[in-house]
Amino acid sequence: MSLFIICQNAFCCDNCNVYLGVTPNDDRNSVSFMYRNRLMMGSYNAYGLQTMLKHAAHGNDPAFWGNVISEHFNTYELRAQFLLKKRWRTSLILPYIHNSQFINGSDRYELNGFGDPIVLQGYQLINPYVEDDEQKAKHRLEIGAGIKLPLGKINLLNHNERPNLDLQPGTGSLDYLGYVKYILKYKNFGATTNLNYKLNTHNAEGYRYGNTTNATLNLFYQTKVDNFTFIPTVGANIEQTNHDFSIEEHFDTGGHVIFGQLGLKVFWKTFSIFGEFQKAVSNKLKGYTQLINKHKLNVGFAYNF
Questions:
Q1: Which of 277, 254, 260, 258 is nearest to 54 (CA)?
Q2: Cβ 172 vs Cβ 145: under 8 Å
Q3: What is the DSSP string of the chain?
Q4: Contacts (Cβ under 8 Å, ≥6 apart) of 227
Q5: How far apart, in whole angstroms, are the C-alpha atoms of residue 142 and residue 88?
Q6: Residue 150: which pLDDT band, with cuts at 50, 70 and 90?
Q7: pTM of this prediction?
Q8: Domains, the chain, with CATH or none
């Protein structure tokens, strides 16, 4: 457990992109459970314009005018990772979604259901586990690609109404992902970087989310107390998305968000737990109707074998 990888991404609502999570003990196979939460808020004037700052263009919804809106995106994920010959990594992700929308603190919509599963295949171009394990300095480079399958529902009703696509468990589109991640570690200190891209396609109703790019940098320190290993992290995550598209390009969607983040991983024998809090420090979103990102929370545990 002398080296680990952090890989994450998500933009705006979690339907727009994918959080790839943490892979503790990443020289082993693993089964893990993760919980993710994202809070978005907006305050609208009587004309439907966002007054807090600026996401999906909700301002044309008359129910928002003159009110404070919050949306909670909750994802529960079962994940499995399999490592072949210390080089090939196959990841399977099955999400269950619970999303809700509130107007002035009162529940308006609440949706539950299985989301779109994800299959990823990675290859480690540079792998320190096939080198001398006593080296003080190590690094790793991994590239990968995958698909998000359109199996989640996009037409669930709540109170006999159909909430917008952001709140639905799925997107209805077959999407493609690619990533590059790199880690450098010297003795107990290190840094991880991740760059990933998601190419979205049109769903059956002709709507397409904007393609997304995510970049993450984390610094970490590794220390051991008895049989426990602790790895605190600090870093930043940038999420950038293009405009959505249906019949025409939606210029009031897209933009970028910067998150500052703090995390902690704890390892004990074949088990590990992790937590990460991400605070939005900058919302630069298009138009004047988008909800703004407030924070994200990611926690989970894993069994490694």
A1: 254
A2: no
A3: ----EE-----TTGGGS----EESSTTS-EEEEEEEEEEEEEEB-TTS-BSS----B-TT-GGGTTSEEEEEEEEEEEEEEEEETTTEEEEEEEEEEEEEEEETTEEEEEEEEE---EEEEEEEEE-GGGS-TT-SEEEEEEEEEEEE---S-S---BTTB---GGGSS--SS-EEEEEEEEEEEETTEEEEEEEEEEE----TTS-BPPPEEEEEEEEEE-EEETTEEEEEEEEEEEEEE--EESSSEETTS-EEEEEEEEEEEEEETTEEEEEEEEEEEEEEESSS-BPEEEEEEEEEEEEE-
A4: 268, 269
A5: 9
A6: very high
A7: 0.86
A8: 5-304 (2.40.160.40)
Reported as a single tens digit per residue, the pLDDT across 32-48 is 999 999 999 988 877 56
Q: Calculate the CA dihedral of residues 219, 260, 119, 78 and round it to 10 degrees.
A: 100
In this structure, what token pair is assigned to residue 65?
């005018």
Q: How far is CA 2 from CA 157, 265, 299, in A?
A: 48, 13, 22
- Which residue type sits at 128? P
Closest by CA to 22, choosing from 2, 10, 6, is 6
